[in-house]
């Protein structure tokens, strides 16, 4: 490994690079502890069986060859913090050693940062784009650890003690640390107009022509070399294409569609096949299945909606992610019905339309205990609740109001992106998360709306708007206003007066609605 510090001069030339990034490149990463660093916990050796021992030997030899770890001097062994390795099966049938840093992570700060999302990739792709994918080799190993913090990243195996010299996998802040360094590295490229997206060590170059993609690829590769970032040529696709697999998703710019990669579809189908009536699965196995479904729902438009039936069934069985992971749950027929959609390849092959929505149609909503109101492009709609609806919870009335308004304005909303503005946070959550697990009646209403909208709207999202900024819909829901009771919003009045000067006469009907002082 060639440390980034050998390329420090190039890092210092980056525009607006933070002092934190330069310090990390020059001296190594200082682990950001939230509490006092953990005390010495004894030399805890990694103990494994014969087959796993061979895997560990290969892992240690590889890490030593890459200079990712170093042997701890004998006089320092009785200090620092030791973690153990455990062995997990690979997808291809092999075994993978993983350093268990969970105890150390309890002492590390919880710092938020933004990583690239599937939704962001969807919005960035343009029609007929060309793609190049770049994979970095040993991503985290680019970043050194501050020498006197390496003692917290120790492990022991077969009588020898080792410590990490570079960022290890499993440290809670490794993704954040590496991403901040990469973001700084890519900043000058983005200033040049190069479109590049990065998720840890996976990068995607977007260009409007094949020649532009080649040119930008060459600029990026030269820039990487100058900064000491190493290319994994085997996993990169350097020849421009108009369809590519990135983050487990197949992206096609000629059709402007995306869907899960065949490998991910197959992994979901395989996991669902294990769920058979009369069989029992552990809580951990159900968690893994839910994890696959949740990740797929970033791509499948109504994935979250068809994930909720399984979650509701598990809730009736006392399922808790924090519970005993080895507790067995017996599979019933209702569980199988909840997974019906996830057995269908056509459902798993669905995906979003690529590109940012050029415009959303906005629908302002509100409901009261007596009725509902909505405003779309200045056009009002309203109605009264009848019979048993008068006894409903206000959250359910707010959700029903959304349904009534969508149906009323459907001729203008069909095949459009729709944004609902409401002052009810539960409605926002249940629409955006395609249901919920707190209120069964509210979930059923949200389910009806979303199923109804599937073949009518391009998308349906909701956003929270405080009640005082949603006055039109609020007044309509209370069966107002009386003729002549409308008024301009005071902030709008101020903007008009700044341009044209204050008005002398207010022609609005009542004293309560005037903007001109008497």
TrEMBL record:
GO molecular function: RNA-directed DNA polymerase activity; RNA-DNA hybrid ribonuclease activity
CDD domains associated with the record: RNase_HI_RT_DIRS1, RT_DIRS1
Family that this chain belongs to: Belongs to the beta type-B retroviral polymerase family. HERV class-II K(HML-2) pol subfamily.
UniProt EC number: 3.1.26.4
Classification via Pfam families: RT_RNaseH, RVT_1
Taxon lineage: Eukaryota, Metazoa, Chordata, Craniata, Vertebrata
Protein name, UniProt field: ribonuclease H
Keyword Membrane found: no
InterPro entries noted in UniProt: DNA/RNA_pol_sf, Hepadnavirus_pol/RT, Rev_trsase/Diguanyl_cyclase, RNaseH_sf, RT_dom, RT_RNaseH
SUPFAM superfamilies xrefs: DNA/RNA polymerases
Organism of provenance: Cirrhinus mrigala (Mrigala)
């Amino acid at each position: 490994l060639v440390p980034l510090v050998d390329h420090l001069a190039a890092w210092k030339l980056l525009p607006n690079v933070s002092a934190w990034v330069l310090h990390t490149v020059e001296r190594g990463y200082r682990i950001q502890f939230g509490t006092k660093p953990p005390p010495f916990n004894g030399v805890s050796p990694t103990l494994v069986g014969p087959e796993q021992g061979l895997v560990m030997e290969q892992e240690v030899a590889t890490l030593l060859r890459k200079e990712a770890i170093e042997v701890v001097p004998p006089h320092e062994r009785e200090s620092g913090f030791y973690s153990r390795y455990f062995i997990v099966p690979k997808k291809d049938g092999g075994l993978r050693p993983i350093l268990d840093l969970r105890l150390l992570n309890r002492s590390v700060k919880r710092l938020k940062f933004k990583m690239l999302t599937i939704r962001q990739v969807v919005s960035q792709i343009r029609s007929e784009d060309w793609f190049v994918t770049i994979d970095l080799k040993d991503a985290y190993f680019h970043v050194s650890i501050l020498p006197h913090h390496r003692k917290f990243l120790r492990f022991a195996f077969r009588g020898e003690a080792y410590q990490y010299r570079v960022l290890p996998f499993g440290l809670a802040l490794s993704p954040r640390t590496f991403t901040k360094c990469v973001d700084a590295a890519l900043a000058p490229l983005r200033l040049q107009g190069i479109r590049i997206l990065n998720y840890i060590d996976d990068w995607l170059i977007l260009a409007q022509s094949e020649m532009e993609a080649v040119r930008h690829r060459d600029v990026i590769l030269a820039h990487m070399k100058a900064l000491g970032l190493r290319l994994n040529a085997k996993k990169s696709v350097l020849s421009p294409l108009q369809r590519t697999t990135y983050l487990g998703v197949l992206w096609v710019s000629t059709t402007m569609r995306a869907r899960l990669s065949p490998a991910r579809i197959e992994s979901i189908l395989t996991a669902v096949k294990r769920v058979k009536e009369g069989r029992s699965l552990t809580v951990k196995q159900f968690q893994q299945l839910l994890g696959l479904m949740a990740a797929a729902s970033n791509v499948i438009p109504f994935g979250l909606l068809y994930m909720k039936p399984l979650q509701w069934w598990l809730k009736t069985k006392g399922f808790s992610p924090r519970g005993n992971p080895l507790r067995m749950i017996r599979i019933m027929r209702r569980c199988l019905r909840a997974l019906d959609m996830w057995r269908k390849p056509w459902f798993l092959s669905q995906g979003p339309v690529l590109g940012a929505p050029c415009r959303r149609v906005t629908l302002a909503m509100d409901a009261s205990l007596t009725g509902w109101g909505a405003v779309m492009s200045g056009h009002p709609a309203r109605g009264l609740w009848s019979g048993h609806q008068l006894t409903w919870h206000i959250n359910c009335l707010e959700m029903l109001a959304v349904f009534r308004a969508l149906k009323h304005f459907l001729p203008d909303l069909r095949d459009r992106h729709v944004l609902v503005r409401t002052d009810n946070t539960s409605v926002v959550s249940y629409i955006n998360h395609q249901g919920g697990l707190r209120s069964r009646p509210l979930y059923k209403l949200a389910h009806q709306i979303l199923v109804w909208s599937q073949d009518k709207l391009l998308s349906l999202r909701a956003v929270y708007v405080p009640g005082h900024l949603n006055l039109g819909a609020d007044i309509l829901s209370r069966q107002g206003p009386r003729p002549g009771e409308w008024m301009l919003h005071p902030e709008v009045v101020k903007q008009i007066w700044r341009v044209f000067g204050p008005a002398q006469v207010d022609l609005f009907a009542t004293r309560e609605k005037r903007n001109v002082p008497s």
